[in-house]
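Deliverable D4.2, example record:
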Amino acid sequence: MQTDFLVIGSGIAGLTYALKVAQECPGKKVTILTKTQSDETNTKYAQGGIAGVMDFDNDSFSKHIEDTLVAGDGLCNKKVVEIVVKEGVDRINELIEWGAHFDKDPDGDYKLGKEGGHSESRILHHKDVTGAEMERALLDAIKKCKNIELISHCFVVDIITQHHLGYLVTKSTPDIECYGVYILNLTTKKIEKIIANITMLAAGGNGQVYRSTTNPAIATGDGVAMVYRAKGRIENMEFIQFHPTALYEPGLRGHSFLITEAVRGDGGILRNVNGEAFMERYDSRKDLAPRDIVARAIDNEMKINGTEHVYLDCTHMDQQKFMEHFPNIHAKCLGIGIDVSKDMIPVSPAAHYSCGGVKTDEWGRTSIHNLYAAGECASTGLHGANRLASNSLLEAMVFAHRAYKDAVFNTDARTIPPVNGERAFPDWNAEGTTAPGEMILITQSLKELKLLMSDYVGIVRNDKRLQRANRRLDLLHEETEQLYEKTELSPQLCELRNMITVGYLIVKCAELRKESRGLHYNTDHLQRSKILQNTIL
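Output generated by the structure prediction step:
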């Protein structure tokens, strides 16, 4: 298959980009790939909302910029922060024009929520399913574009570069180019190739590397791992954000139900097992401190009291308003026997968001020519050492727009080079591989990976834990590569391989950062360095 614009991922970043290039270039073909159904993305599970300065009487760009810089703990790119905050309002209004609905008060003004780290109320939301509403609006708009093809159940295996034409490609190669991707067609079970003039990587996050995460099963870090294998630049992977309040369900592992930060914004209070409101001991902003501070506070309370969770107390809140604003949370809690009007909600931190990823410039360009990145898989410079709540959806839309502008401007100059007179990219070589004999070789390695990442590379780290994690990852990598060389490809094997790579990148970046900053908290390096720099691999 050949296409003009290839988009990997169908979350808010990928869909926004695809929609814009399709509308701008009606004569060009746009192809979107997604590895399950089209709406199964991290975007879909975003509850809280999208941050934007919509109330200029009480809020300002400068306030939003300052809040983002403070949360990022010194590592944000200030120019990028200004770009996202100032351009974000236009992107939100575009989304509204495309049909997204946000909650309004009786006067017709948008209801603006407040979350941790924000100095003003600026969070637009659609009840507690904001991401799903945004995803719906974008998919509806995508369906109206005749030059967009959306292919579901399609697993992207690797990026095609000069390496596949027989050239030596290393980290030092100055002109690595992306020509498309190899995919595993989950319908036909065959490896196919898609050649593209321009590729957008919007493959989402990597929360599944951890035992407990708010991310869906698809969040396995595929995009970051592929770019790393292709010798692209990756940065700041040590900054993994743990959402402080995931619903604690005994025995549950994997996808944890998120209790949005907006609940605390509306007055929810964190209490320990003794019923004490403990956040005032950790930060003057109490329950609305930035996520890294709240997550570490909860982790400390759990360790002090020997418990697996703390509580979020909503019993004092207006219950009618709670049900109107958080119907999904109310129904979920009720379904497991928790009446939020009488019972406190048990919560604990869970892996939520990766602030690092594929390094991009201010136009979404990666270090690999013809390859853009946006959304959670990208590291744009916005988040620094810790993401400010509800900035992620905003960032995805702003950089999707900027990448579209740059890609459309340069598309005619970017064509696949002829090889021997034709585009002779080799087919995938599966010679010598056999069907997997025992799936336990994959499933057990996956369990080991999640366990070691959670125990050694979690909210609080130290040098010895990181060293142990590194040694165990080396063994898992060796065993999995041997399996990869001899076994027919499957999504499970590819995801395991990608997650081991992502785990390695997180650990390696964590080892390189000899300080505690933002989401990276190392008890052997509690001091903060005066030299601010990114960790780039």
